[in-house]
Design brief:
Structural class: mainly alpha
Order of helices and strands: HHHHHHHHHHHHH
Largest sheet: none
Shape: globular
Number of helices: 13
Strand content: under 5%
Distance between the termini: 36 Å
């Protein structure tokens, strides 16, 4: 709590108020804020599209393999983020595993330049955040009575119709929780982008890191970190409203 109060105090000085004006009016900083939010939304969408099928299989079709799948999901969270990033560097480098496979299969003539770019940064972020999406959705799917899906099929609904009209609407609480978690965590991430993206994507967390460690402009860094905090608080507010609304609806 004290660091947050210290940041707030620094950012409310006359110099800090000027920094807020820059953040909210200067095209460069507005672009950085838009990039930060856009990246967070993009990673959230990818995690949802890739994670929902895994969550559904985990609950409905994994059987005795469910324990192993959960272990594989949780294991990356127990690994230091720097080790995970270096692992992706080995896979995505010019002489890495991915380029070796593609060249061996004749798909490419020369190595792809994946490191130090947006693609590598997004891949690293999705790898870090997708367990939160999968586990959030799986927890809600677990509470849905499979008999509802069976009844819909008995009444003539197809597999996809059952999913879009029964399963998915009932799992929206898990989708919303996972989306908010992934968005907030991505919104504050900078180590993965720094190591894999090489700074190709300018986001607020990277600028905060630079302000505190490179330029030593702590006032500007405090203002930027407070903007990030406001974005996180907005996400928490939306989640609280969603929970209250769903609670009233039920």
């Amino acid at each position: 709590m004290l660091p947050l109060l210290d940041n707030l105090t620094k950012s409310l000085t006359p110099e800090g108020q000027t920094d807020y004006a820059k953040l909210l009016t200067d095209p460069f900083y507005l672009h950085v804020i838009a990039t930060t939010i856009g990246l967070s939304l993009g990673v959230t969408a990818i995690c949802l599209l890739a994670g929902y099928p895994v969550a559904y299989y985990l609950v409905r079709g994994s059987g005795r393999w469910s324990g192993l799948i959960i272990f594989l999901l949780i294991t990356p969270l127990l690994t230091p983020i720097i080790m995970r990033s270096f692992g992706w560097e080995i896979i995505l480098s010019r002489a890495g595993l991915l380029n070796s496979i593609l060249r061996g299969a004749g798909r490419i003539d020369r190595p792809l330049m994946l490191l130090n770019g947006p693609v590598a940064g997004v891949i690293g972020l999705v790898h870090v955040q997708i367990p939160f999406m999968i586990l959030s959705i799986a927890a809600v799917l677990q509470s849905i009575n499979p008999g509802l899906e069976d009844s819909a099929r008995v009444l003539g609904a197809g597999r996809w119709s059952t999913f879009f009209h029964i399963t998915f609407p009932l799992s929206l609480d898990g989708v919303a929780t996972g989306a908010i978690l992934v968005f907030m965590l991505t919104n504050g991430s900078f180590v993965t982008l720094l190591l894999l993206g090489g700074g190709s994507l300018q986001t607020l967390p990277l600028l905060v890191f630079q302000q505190f460690n490179t330029t030593q402009d702590t006032t500007m860094g405090a203002a930027m970190s407070n903007v990030l905090l406001v974005i996180a608080l907005v996400c928490l507010f939306l989640q609280l409203r969603l929970i209250r609304r769903r609670g009233l609806a039920s």
